[in-house]
Design goal:
This protein has about 220 residues and is α/β, with parallel strands linked by helices. It contains 10 helices and 6 strands; from the N terminus they run βαααααβαβαβαβαβα. Strands 3-2-1-4-5-6 form a 6-stranded parallel beta sheet, with helices on both faces. Helix 1 crosses helix 4 and helix 7 crosses helix 8. It is globular, with a radius of gyration of 17 Å. The chain binds magnesium ion. The site of magnesium ion (MG) has 10 residues, from loops.
């Protein structure tokens, strides 16, 4: 296998998950006894543990209060998510299913790079029936640092799938571009999140697309 394509999840493959969003507030209340919404920070592209730490710091908790209970907080997020995902209505973004189908038919190895905790990421993708396209991933539960997630996913591809070749990272935020760049991959930005094509270009990705709908242009980049 000479191609590995690693997709971000939120705002790259799918739209917003209310259930995942609410899971943070639930866990913060249960574990730290605070009422706070993650929207007080710009969390796009951050890992779930990092989101929790930065939100709690912002409301005045310090690391010695946050870190000892962080694992418990992550477990509560997963619990809430798994108990409520059935009622969630997660949209798949335009062009995604068709692109994944084409890449899979071409024998390309596909993986995930997401700040989501692993059970949350798979739960979202299973709920809209696209989990089976992805063979591996780097998740927020593997490491707090997104660049490390890319390295973890590439290592899994090498160890489990004899992968040796070109790696692509596809994502919607400057943090995705930075992680892909730091892990020496080809970086592809897609403006389906809160950043426009022009804003994303400022961060120097190798390629930028408005959406994942223009299959020919995207395949040209991925398969050449
Ligand atoms: Mg994203």
């Amino acid at each position: 296998m000479n191609r590995l394509i690693l997709f971000d999840v939120d705002r790259t493959l799918i739209g917003r998950s209310q259930c995942h969003h609410d899971a943070f507030s639930y866990a913060f209340k249960k574990v730290y006894d605070v009422d706070v919404d993650i929207r007080i920070i710009d969390y796009g592209g951050m890992t779930d543990p990092d989101i929790a730490i930065q939100v709690l710091k912002k409301i005045g908790l310090n690391e010695s209060e946050i870190l000892p209970k962080l694992d418990q907080c992550m477990d509560m997020i997963v619990d809430y998510f798994q108990n409520n995902i059935k009622r969630d209505k997660i949209p798949i973004l335009p062009g995604v299913r068709a692109l994944l189908e084409l890449l899979t038919n071409d024998g390309i190895l596909l993986g995930l790079i997401t700040g989501n905790l692993e059970p949350v990421a798979w739960g979202k993708l299973k709920s809209i029936k696209i989990a089976h396209y992805f063979k591996l991933g780097g998740f927020g539960s593997d490491n707090i640092n997104r660049t490390e997630l890319v390295k973890i996913a590439v290592k899994k591809a090498e160890d489990d799938f004899n992968f040796n070749g070109k790696v692509f990272v596809v994502g919607d935020t400057p943090r995705d571009i930075k992680a892909g760049f730091e892990a020496n991959t080809v970086t592809i930005a897609v403006a389906t999140g809160t950043y426009s094509v022009d804003e994303l270009k400022n961060y120097g990705p190798d390629f930028v697309f408005e959406t994942l709908e223009n299959k020919e242009e995207i395949l040209d980049v991925l398969l050449k």
